[in-house]
Amino acid sequence: MSDNKNVQKKLPPIKMRYKSRENITLDECLGMYDLFKVYYKNTPFEQFLEDFSNKTGAHIAKRKSDGKVVGFSTGVAKNIINSEGKEIRILFSGDTVMSKEYWGTKAFPMSFFLWLISERLRHPTKEMYWFLISMGYRTYLILANNFYKYYPNIDGDDPKLREAAFSAADDIFPGALNRETGLLDFGDDACTLADFVTPITEKERAVPKIGFFESRNPGWAKGDEMACIGSMDWGSFARMFLDIRRTLFKKGKRRAQTQASSAAVHQKPDTVEVTIDDIPSSNGKTV
């Protein structure tokens, strides 16, 4: 067994669940920011709070032993009007950070999928999509490796999905979207990923989906975000449910998709430059 796997096995267990914004404590919010500022540049606490005030909640991962925040993903659930004047429901995933030693944990997909199930069942007849903006390829792969109908897609873009993504981007980030490129530009002060987070080397670039991501978002390193969306129609949702059930509960392997983009990256990081215990808490002490 590799050293990487041994390190992964020794990690303290964590629990992740979705909490509405009004139920998130100040300590949890500070813990989220302590983690966020390690993985992203150019984001003062005031900006982080302002952005979070526009979210409806967050998935928060904590160590069971001491309650230390080791990951989070902010979210918004809202109805918008698309370009055809039709009301659709958007589930938006905002800032998403997981401490590097916990990359690959099943806690996040479990929490995230339970959120999707809850929303899908609460709005059974509503046209529904998962919307996200992607600065790093790992975020894009969550979409491309798990959704059957999504945009942007290496096998060809669906015009309806593209318009749904653009409608969501215009609603949530008015004025930021370039409709020619599908990218959002937040200006010179945009937050950017820390250099160690998702570098794209020749090794990653050889994976079709990652190479495709870079071709569509060549400015990712300077903070450009790519508008992305996945359909949550009932047919796709049922297939996703069976896939995740097999994956999470190990009742079989996910059936390989036939599309050219089916190659996925599952390797863990070769080294862990920053661990959760290296992150200072708000009182200046490491935990």
Question: Main traits of this protein?
Answer:
single chain, 287 residues, alpha+beta, Aminopeptidase, nine-stranded mixed beta sheet, two-stranded antiparallel ribbon, 9 helices, 11 strands, globular, disordered N terminus, disordered C terminus
Q: Low-confidence stretches at least 5 residues in length (pLDDT < 50)?
A: 1-8, 249-287
Percentage of residues in DSSP E strands: 15-25%
Extended strand count: 11
The CATH architecture can be named as 3-Layer(aba) Sandwich
Q: Please give the domain count.
A: 1
> Mean of residue pLDDT?
81
- What's the Cα radius of gyration? 18 Å
Outline, from the CA principal axes? globular
Largest sheet: 9 strands, mixed
Instruction: Give me the CATH superfamily.
Output: Gcn5-related N-acetyltransferase (GNAT)
Order of helices and strands: HEHEHEEEHEHEHEEEHHEH
Secondary-structure content class: alpha+beta
Count helical runs.
Answer: 9
Which oligomeric form is depicted?
single chain
Termini separation (Å)?
29 Å
Query: What fraction, in percent, of the residue positions are helical?
Result: 25-40%
CATH fold name: Aminopeptidase
The CATH class turns out to be Alpha Beta
Quick description:
By secondary structure, this protein is α+β, with helices and mostly antiparallel strands.
Care to describe what's here?
The protein has 287 residues and is an alpha+beta fold. The protein has a single domain, classed as Gcn5-related N-acetyltransferase (GNAT) (Aminopeptidase, 3-Layer(aba) Sandwich). A hairpin with a 4-residue loop joins strand 8 and strand 9. Helix 5 crosses helix 8. The longest helix is centred in the middle third of the chain and has 16 residues.
